[in-house]
Amino acid sequence: MSVPLLGLGRPALEDWAEAQGQSAFRGRQLHDWLYAKGARSLDQVTVLPKAWRQQLQAVPPAGANDWIGRSREVQRSVARDGTTKLLLATHDGHTIETVGIPAEGRLTVCVSSQVGCPMACRFCATGKGGLQRSLAVHEIVDQVLSVREVMDQRPSHVVFMGMGEPLLNSEAVLAAIDCLCTDLGMAQRQITVSTVGVPKTLPTLAERSLERLGRAQYTLAVSLHAPDQRLREELIPTSHAYPIEALLDDCRHYVAITGRRVSFEYILLGGLNDQPRHAEALARLIRGFQSHVNLIPYNPIVEEDFQRPTPAAVEAFRRALQERHVAVSVRASRGLDADAACGQLRRRHLEQMPASPSHG
Ligand code: SAH
Fold first, then answer.
1. Where do the domains of the chain lie?
2. Percentage of residues in the chain having pLDDT higher than 90
3. pLDDT at 310 over 60
4. Residue with CA at minimum distance from ligand 1 atom 10
5. 143-152, 174-183, 216-225, 345-354: range with lowest mean pLDDT
């Protein structure tokens, strides 16, 4: 098996070491260095025999420059509130964004699941550049380790809300969740997977989660953003192929299989979908649904002239939902002074580069 070691659990590392003609004990050492010690390259794992390391380094695995499989930090941007955005380079010369968001007693890591994104939601900076490729398991786990290293703090929460559509890379996402829980000791309940909805994937995700993880206790967040199909298609062109009723049916199916309620994300765009009538329609749409609505005030991106909602509109929307017995919260904007919406740090970086980023 010629894949980077990051992402493999203890039994797989033991098997790998034995397949290399070493004892299983070497696999357990590697586990400690990969996850507890955060080794960046095989050079640093000095407990392993030097001859073996040299022999391995002569033949790197597919998909990485080094057997460990860590990324390289290209740029760091720290906001006044401590929110830290990292631009990380993959072995093939792509860049991805990952964000560490500190709050009382917590550290949330916002991870990317793809390089770019094919979904092209109109308000999203990442969507403007299309998809380059999906990330491998080690590239997802690496983001959490990179934030841990830079912020010198153990991440408590992980949200798949960075670049990409997780449901277009669900096997790697589930493998990464397994690794975060089994090898880094995180709790599944502290992990959130956010999707804008891909036809025919939610029931499969529910079943695969049970098979792969034994249980599905992470939170599924669905980016709804509109209370009806017409407005949703305006904001999310790909939703044309996935009627809002079919999406909600699939969410109900997901709840039935996993026993977990889902949460709905709703971006508030000033004057467009933030009026009281939209809140009323949303409450009607999800009536009787075991769910939670998370309101996200729009973070401006340069490519579009959507407006941020006024604080009064946000509050009125929240209250209208609450009065209709919908569990609702408003996401605080974090790190706005650093570089605004997710995906923007990377886009600015790409614009400043003389040549294409894919020079790998
Ligand atoms: N593709 C997934 C996950 C990535 S986006 C999804 O769509 O859910 C994570 C969340 O950030 C989504 O709810 C998305 O709609 C939201 N988002 C994207 N661009 C934004 C912006 N400019 N301002 C506020 N939220 C944004």
1. 10-57, 72-351
2. 88
3. yes
4. 161
5. 345-354
* Identified catalytic residue from 14, 97, 165, 265: 97
CATH 3.20.20.70 given to domain 72-351: yes
Concerning whether 315 is annotated as a catalytic residue, the answer is no
Cα distances (Å, whole numbers) of residue 276 to 39, 247, 279, 332: 52, 23, 5, 21
Average pLDDT rounded to a whole number, residues 110-122 = 97
Global pTM value: 0.94
Residue 34 backbone class (left: φ over 0; alpha: ψ -120 to 50; beta: rest): alpha
For residue 350, pLDDT over 70 is answered with no
Q: How many whole angstroms from its chain centre is CA 267? A: 17
Check pocket membership of 267 for ligand 1, CB cut-off 6 A: yes
With a 6 Å cutoff on the Cβ, whether 314 touches ligand 1 is: no
The verdict on the CB of residue 193 being under 6 Å from ligand 1 is no
pLDDT, average across residues 73-93: 95
Distance (angstroms) between ligand 1 centre and the Cα of 26 equals: 42
Among 122, 205, 267, say which to mutate for ligand 1: greatest number of ligand atoms within 8 Å of CB: 267
Q: Is 179 a catalytic residue?
A: no
pLDDT tens for each residue of 311-347: 999 999 999 999 999 999 999 877 655 454 556 667 6
CA of 154 to the centre of ligand 1 (A): 25
Nearest alpha carbon, ligand 1 atom 3: 161
pLDDT at 334: 72
Atom 22 in ligand 1: which residue has the minimum CA distance?
299
